Amino acid sequence: MAAFEYPNAVAVRDAFLRHGVRYLFFGKSGAILLGYSDTTQDVDLFVDKGRENGERLVAALGELGFPLTEQQAQDIISGKDLVQLRSGPFDLDLVFAPDGVERFEDAWQRHVEREGFPVAHITDIIQSKEAANRQKDWESLPRLRKFRDWLLKQQS
Question: Is position 154 within any domain?
Fold first, then answer.
């Protein structure tokens, strides 16, 4: 599995813009777009749950080269909590209900734009990793918190 790369983010941004998909870069891929110095193996997206957005998302994923099964397409359209795609041009996690973040609309109100990328606020990314309570997240949380402190200082 290849690591997350900037061209992956550009491809997602451009296809999703053409199809009108509401989403945020999330997780480590979102933090990386904010300037966090680390790597990740997949693109994490927090997607607005809703049938119409899900239908647009399925069309955009087809354009990107993700061969969706009928079940995957239905899971996306219905807004299943997590849909992991491992058979496309890169690994993609579609998160419709991330741990620690109540509603997409709330995260959208706090999000930031970086080079045209809609990215979840670093506090939402950290809050979600804390709530997920996974070992791999606990190992990266101290570095993410230091990055958050540095980033917020730069913005003030």
Answer: no
Give this prediction's pTM. Answer: 0.94
Range of the structural domain that residue 85 is part of: 6-147
- Here the tokens at position 32 are 């990386």
Q: Does the residue 66 lie in any domain?
A: yes
Residue 16 makes CB contacts below 8 A (sequence gap 6+) with 23, 57, 60
* 26-66: pLDDT as tens digits: 999 999 999 999 888 899 999 999 999 999 999 999 999 99
Q: Say how many domains are in the chain.
A: 1
Specify the residue for token string 């918190």: 145
Tell me the residue ranges of DSSP E strands in 10-141: 23-26, 43-47, 82-85, 92-95, 112-114, 117-119
